[in-house]
Amino acid sequence: MSVVLVSNEQSIRGVRKMSIQSRETIVAADLQQAAEEFVAAGFGSLELRVQDGPDVWCGAAGVRELGTTELPPPAGLVRVGSVTKTFVATIVLQLVAEDRLTLDTSVAEHLPRFELDPRITVRMLLDHTSGLFNYTGEYYPDGTVVPGLPATGADWANHRLDSYTPDALVEFALSKPARFEPGTEWSYANTNYTVAALLIEAITGRTFAAELDSRIIQPLGLTSTIEPGDRVDLPGPHSHGYFRYQDGEESKLVDVTEQNPSLLFAAGSMLSTSQDLQVFMSALQSGKLLPADLLEQMRTPQPLSGPLNYALGLFAQDTGTETIYHHNGSAPGGYGALMYSSADGTRTLTAAITMGDADVNILEVFPPALDRLVQAVFTPMRVA
Q1: How many alpha carbons fall within 13 Å on the CB side of residue 49?
Q2: Has this prediction a pTM greater than 0.85?
Q3: DSSP readout, 247-288?
Q4: Residue 22: its pLDDT value, please?
Q5: Is the pLDDT of residue 18 over 60?
Q6: Which of 67, 52, 68 minimizes the C-alpha distance to 5?
Q7: What are the residue numbers of the active site?
Q8: Closest to 89 in 3D by CA, of 246, 310, 238
Q9: Rounded to 5 degrees, what are φ and ψ at 219?
Q10: Residues 151-156: contacts with CB within 8 Å, 24+ apart?
Q11: How many CB atoms sit inside 10 A of residue 222's CB?
């Protein structure tokens, strides 16, 4: 395991010498320690990028592939999971800005083939208050689990190359009872964003992938962001992702670099890089993609989400000194991504994560490792 940190887009193999009194040294030292601790907690690799004004630091910890010592590739492709939702929400809000729909529009009138509850609005899709069943399974506070499509454990491992159409995902969700009446409660559901992407297609007459390309990828010059459909490979430099699961009495480890992202169409399907996510998040928070009033709505948490502070495709987080915005994500197995920004978009943290062979409880090790990483970026400068 090793970490190198650089400034101003220098090579990931080099290290810039910096004064101990400088902000750069403090940040770099904190990031190096946080990145090492992240991998030590049980992750396979972490490739990170931190922007602070004109400066950018890049770092890597862990290995590109088990059995080797090679670092993760700079700006390597990663399955970003639910980071996809922020892109979808941005496009929907752009359509609102163009007066092609409103946040209070009934979704059913634009997608009549699904016979959705007419009370479900565009806003309810984006803030997870629609009540639609989560097609990857519902987990209730009392411990009750209602299974969905194969998305966890051995079930997903054995079906990870299966292909799904977006309509099939929605139809499966609608075959199950709604979790609650629209607008009365909050529950995170992938179904909401798959429906939101189909709404984009219905409004524009073009595919979600085409709208993503013309509205975000091309204007921002994103070179490695892809809505892959049912393509199972990673078409560019990348690290391998692994998945450990229990099969009866046996713990198994499998390389899940190849998997079919169509299971999470527009809810967790995209491929991207830490570099592209940095450019996107900085542009979004600095007002380059949405008018100020809609950006404000995008950032305003839905009260029903409670301490999670979920708004419209973004989480809001109070660090004690400022409010930052983020949406992280993970594939069903092997991969994850981080995407954080200050309110003005001048300070960002983005990262590509892989799982390795450690037999750890991610729900236990991820929160403290993530907190150390975020605190290393979004805390006031300390006096050296």
Answers
A1: 30
A2: yes
A3: ETTEEEEEE-SS--GGGGTTTT--EE-HHHHHHHHHHHHTTS
A4: 44
A5: no
A6: 52
A7: 82
A8: 310
A9: -60, -35
A10: 151/263, 151/332, 152/332, 153/245, 153/246, 154/245, 154/246, 154/247, 154/252, 156/243, 156/245, 156/332, 156/333
A11: 20
